[in-house]
Amino acid sequence: MRQFGPVVVDRIRSSADLRRLLPHILLESDIFIVKPTWYSPHLGNFTDAETLRLLIEALDGRVVVTESYTLDRQDGTMKFAVDGKEVDWIWVLKHQGWDWIRREGRWDELRRQDKWFLDEYGFTDLFKERGVEYINVTEEVWEGRTADASAVKEAVKAQFTPVFRDILYSSVPKRLYELRGAPLISFGKVKGIQGTYPSLTMKNLFGLIPDPNRAWWHGPNDKWLGGSIVDINKVYSSLFNVYGICEALRYATVSHPEGEVKVPWGSYNLVRDPGIVTLGQPLIYVDAVLCGLIGVDPEKVSYLRLGEEAFGRYERRWLEEAKAATSDWFPV
């Protein structure tokens, strides 16, 4: 085990190994909210059922798993047509918007794809076996089952500067809001070793924005992305005790323009079975240390630069210590 300030890094193989690393706040709670990394079903790119089981079994309380719909978490058959011609999502957002998706069975297609993912990758059986409640944020928001926006806004303003787009205050499911104060674990994956924009625990919460296509939240050339990530972190950090666990148990991804795994947004290589977990709070500390370990300059990661204004400045000495320890953990 290695510690960088409040952030712990260790190699584990079982739920018992993980449990011994958890702080008392996570051992004593009777309910937990877990946000896995479920952007797409590409190899090494999502929290798999075996890994999620390991976390669930390390916790004593009841587990609620939450995620939103995404257009990339599908079996490849999801297509929509207008006047007999297939249209892409740029057309949908420009000409029709989400109201169009909610009508005439298109919303049902998103539901079907979500069910496919849960069934195909073993989550349906895992949830049934372990008594896990699953809350899909998009589903709750589109059905109108949301917390009072003014109450969420006041909670955010009590701790942080306001978010840039007020619509985020209307994007918290009522069922989650009822659990406010509970631990929320951002169960991230180590994605983007030696890259320029890693996906770790803070970016994982970006997945709680309910829009199935979050291109609007990226903005032109990703100029809004860092702010959007920080804002959704403000919302959930104001309501829950947010804790970060970022795993590289079965896989970690390495940025590479000609990588072995081809995805719509590029490609990447895989590090197999590193067995590493990094945990701590706040999330910005976890992600800054991880950047040091995976060879990424955090000063070039917009959500970490902006995040310091909201969540506090991380100690640069932890980063330097992590950089020096890279070869012990991620020698790629």
Count of helical regions:
17
Helix content: 40-55%
Low-confidence stretches are none
Strand order of the largest sheet: 1-2-14-10-8-3-4-7
Give the overall shape: globular
* Global structural class: alpha/beta
User: What share of residues are in beta strands?
Assistant: 15-25%
Task: Please give the largest β-sheet.
Answer: 8 strands, mixed
Average of the residue pLDDT scores: 94
Distance between the termini: 20 Å
**Oligomeric state of the chains?**
single chain
Number of strands: 14
Cα gyration radius (Å): 19 Å
Describe this structure in words.
The protein has 332 residues and is an alpha/beta fold. It has helices at 15-19, 24-28, 49-58, 89-96, 98-102, 106-120, 123-130, 137-142, 149-157, 174-177, 201-205, 215-218, 225-239, 283-294, 302-311, 316-324, 326-329, and strands at residues 2-4, 7-11, 31-35, 62-67, 80-82, 85-87, 133-136, 183-189, 191-193, 241-248, 251-255, 261-263, 266-272, 276-280. Helix content is 40%, strand content 20%. The strands form three sheets. An eight-stranded mixed beta sheet has the order 1-2-14-10-8-3-4-7. It has a four-stranded mixed beta sheet with strand order 9-11-13-12, with no helix packed on it. A two-stranded antiparallel sheet has the order 5-6. The radius of gyration is 19 Å and the shape is globular. The two termini are 20 Å apart.
